[in-house]
Amino acid sequence: MENNNKKSSVFYSYCLNPQIKFDTSEEGEKVSLLVRSHPFTQINWFLTSILLFILIWIINPFIKNFFDLKQIFILNLFFYVFVASYIWINVLNWYFNAGIVTNRRVIDIDFYSVIYKEITVAQLGKIEDITVKSGGFFGSYFDYGSVFIQTAGSAVNVEFINVPHPSEIAQIVNRLLGKKHGYQ
Q1: Do 109 and 151 lie in a common domain?
Q2: In this structure, are residues 16 and 33 in contact, taking their beta carbons and an 8 Å threshold?
Q3: Which among 80, 87, 134, 181 is least buried, having the fewest CB atoms inside 10 angstroms?
Q4: How many Å from the N-terminal Cα to the C-terminal Cα in the chain?
Q5: What is the tally of structural domains in the chain?
Q6: Are residues 133 and 79 in the same domain?
Q7: What is the pLDDT of residues 14-31, one digit of tens each?
Q8: Would the CA dihedral through 49, 55, 56, 57 be positive or negative?
């Protein structure tokens, strides 16, 4: 179900043949796929953020009896900065936790905080097995799940968690493996 004519953006969670470069890209390496967590999996923090913004409007009438206007303004400002930081951290977490499939390797970038990230790389020649796990009503309805790529020996395995179209991702990796091993 590849549609190379469809325009894609780096802000999408499933990008076929994106025109991107990354830190460790090699000469002649072409990116076939860029994936991030499905947007539906981000609803939890999004709804929490909305609830927090509503909460301050509910609390304000009750605290006006205990604080003056300047103190309420400072409390509200502090609260809004806190919620904005919460939103920003979650957006960064979604954007930078990415999986990249190239014509040579599969890369899993896990962004844990602003100062720490973990990058797992599996060369196509070392991939032994691909497992797709998708379940539950929402996973089936919105077509998202996890892809686990097992590598040979003591190499670290690659995991794409809660990504859109997990079966298509496995097909793309399998197609690249076939080309690598000369089956296609």
Answers
A1: yes
A2: yes
A3: 181
A4: 18
A5: 2
A6: no
A7: 999 998 888 888 888 999
A8: positive
